[in-house]
């Protein structure tokens, strides 16, 4: 088990905090990440070579900058509890093709039009999060959303997710199920 605790990270070029190919059993707690560089996420799980990244915990962290949290394919058993993610111009959190996640008690505030996106993810619990935007236009864009759950493919169908007890404000769609592939 590895612990990444109480660090301050400012303007890393590739990602503030990152887990690379096949990283397992890591806890990130009490870190403050400020990413003002364009296209550089505050936290990213990098996936490759068909290696799973598992048992990653984010708790009590603050993430601010262009992009928030991004996780990619083959990640599982991810716990994201009580983090503050804000001022992210693009998105607060993207979870792509990942399973068995708990995303709970987070505060996700941004100036962009995307809160939490689950793309092709199964068996996840999204609960008790506060998700809001202060998108600065006269009209909120129709593609904006607090929580998006997308169908990605037959094997990554975005099914069996529980979305419960969240508070979502300021988006065109608060909770969207893009389930064009479901029966």
Fill in the keyword field for this structure.
183 residues; 7-stranded parallel β-sheet
Kindly describe this structure.
With 183 residues, the chain is mainly β. It is 0% helix and 55% strand. The protein has strands at residues 2-5, 8-10, 17-19, 24-29, 32-35, 41-45, 53-59, 62-65, 67-71, 75-81, 84-88, 91-96, 99-104, 107-110, 114-119, 125-127, 130-133, 145-150, 162-164, 167-169, 173-178. It has a 7-stranded parallel β-sheet with strand order 1-4-7-10-13-16-19, with no helix packed on it. It is globular and about 40 Å long. The N and C termini lie far apart (41 Å).
Overall pLDDT: 82
Query: Based on helices, strands and strand pairing, what is the structural class?
Result: mainly beta
Radius of gyration over all CA atoms, rounded: 15 Å
Shape: globular
The profile of the biggest β sheet is: 7 strands, parallel
Total strands: the figure is: 21
Q: Stretches where pLDDT falls below 50 for ≥5 residues?
A: none
Q: What is the helix content?
A: under 10%
Q: SSE order, as H and E? A: EEEEEEEEEEEEEEEEEEEEE
Provide the spatial order of strands within the biggest beta sheet: 1-4-7-10-13-16-19
- Summed up, the helix count is 0
CA-to-CA gap between the ends?
41 Å
- The share of residues in extended strands comes to over 45%
């Amino acid at each position: 088990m590895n612990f990444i605790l109480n660090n301050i990270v400012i303007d890393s070029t590739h990602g503030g905090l990152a887990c690379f190919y096949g990283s397992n059993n890591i806890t990130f707690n009490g870190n403050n990440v400020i990413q003002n560089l364009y296209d550089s996420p505050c936290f990213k799980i990098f996936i490759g070579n068909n290696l799973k990244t598992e048992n990653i915990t984010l708790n009590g962290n603050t993430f601010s900058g262009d992009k928030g949290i991004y996780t990619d394919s083959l990640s599982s058993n991810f716990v994201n509890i009580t983090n503050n993610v804000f001022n992210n111009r693009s998105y607060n959190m993207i979870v792509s093709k990942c399973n068995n996640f708990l995303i709970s008690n987070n505060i996700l505030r941004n100036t962009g039009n995307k809160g939490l996106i689950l793309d092709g993810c199964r068996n996840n619990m999204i609960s008790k999060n506060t998700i809001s935007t202060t998108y600065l236009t006269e009209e909120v864009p129709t593609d904006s959303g607090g929580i998006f759950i997308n169908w990605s493919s037959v094997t990554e169908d975005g099914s069996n997710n529980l979305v419960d007890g969240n508070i979502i404000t300021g988006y065109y769609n608060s909770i969207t199920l893009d389930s064009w592939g479901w029966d």
